[in-house]
Design brief:
The protein is α/β, with parallel strands linked by helices. 38% of the residues lie in helices and 18% in strands. Strands 2-1-3-4-5 form a five-stranded parallel beta sheet, with helices on both faces. The longest helix is centred in the first third of the chain and has 13 residues, at 17-29.
Length: 130
């Protein structure tokens, strides 16, 4: 079993319950602590500073897209890292409108195998393979 010091906490927000369930189970099996929400507004109302190491946010969701959600979460905790997940083409122009000065490089294309997702998260958080 892989363990991280301290426990690495990830928040996943995706309106597809099958995806959040699969990601949660796969990441927890690899030693991460994971919270999931299928409603971006509910995720935002439960978001607290310094609670998560990484956000995995779907881009296309009803009520609020992932870029808008991150913009609001960034106001609460501007130190948390983010990876956007999407089954669609990534529109960098839309990202630049919301975050003109932000350099986001972590985009994960769905579908993604759990092993590849874990590897990408470890790279994003600079975690060694222990």
């Amino acid at each position: 079993m892989v363990t991280y010091l301290p426990m690495t906490k990830i928040l996943i927000v995706d309106d597809d319950t099958d995806i959040t369930l699969a990601f949660k189970k796969g990441l927890e099996n690899d030693g991460f602590q994971v919270d999931v929400f299928n409603d971006p507004l509910e995720a935002l109302s439960n978001f607290r500073p310094s609670k998560y190491d990484l956000l995995l946010l779907d881009i296309r969701m009803p009520k609020m897209n992932g870029f808008e959600l991150y913009k609001e979460m960034d106001k609460i905790d501007n130190n948390v890292k983010v990876c956007f997940i999407t089954a669609f083409e990534v529109y960098y122009e839309a990202l630049r409108e919301v975050f003109p000065s932000m350099e986001v490089e972590c985009f994960i294309r769905k579908p993604v195998e759990i092993g590849n997702l874990v590897k990408r998260i470890k790279n994003e958080l600079n975690l060694s393979n222990s």
